[in-house]
Amino acid sequence: MFSAFSIFRYGLLPIALFCVIVIAAGVHTVVENSIQKSTWPQTVVAVVQSQEFGKNSFPDPHGTVRYVVGGKTYSWQGRGREIGLTVMNPGDQIKLRYNPANPQQINTLVLTGKVTGSIILAVTLAFLGLYVWFFWLRGLLRRPG
């Protein structure tokens, strides 16, 4: 009824569509980050309090920072990774960017996990390219005879 080729061609289609979503998400992240870097001004934040929870293989400090935007003082509290920080020592002065429409939204805008993301993107592109070529284009590109 169905050949093994057809079963794989259509059976792998959901994975190929997932790969398209992964690629679109990666492109969206990079574009959004670039736009924010060009439109969000910088400010200097002062680390007021910091606490490290346990010894992990990756640093994840929790703390409080204060900063001034337009003469108004703001305070932020939470996980350092939420705003792109892996080190928060009390008294540190760190340059962060803030959203001009909402100064309470701050971030380093450093893409953490860039190496891992690049590997995932490369594998996804390789799989998608191979899938499209082998199951969809190869037969179309064959020369007659």
Word description of this protein:
This protein is of the alpha+beta class. It has helices at residues 4-11, 13-39, 114-141, and strands spanning 42-52, 61-69, 72-79, 93-99, 102-107. It has a 5-stranded antiparallel sheet. The two termini are 27 Å apart.
Strand and helix layout:
Layout (H helix, E strand, L loop, with lengths): L3 H8 L1 H27 L2 E11 L8 E9 L2 E8 L13 E7 L2 E6 L6 H28 L4
Antiparallel strand pairs: 1-2, 1-4, 2-3, 4-5
Helix pairs in contact: 2-3
N-to-C terminal Cα separation, in Å?
27 Å
Structural class: alpha+beta
- Percent of residues in β-strands: 25-35%
Q: Could you describe the largest sheet, including whether it forms a barrel? A: 5 strands, antiparallel
Q: Uncertain segments of ≥5 residues (pLDDT<50)?
A: none
The helix content is: 40-55%
> Rg to the nearest angstrom?
23 Å
The rough form would be described as elongated
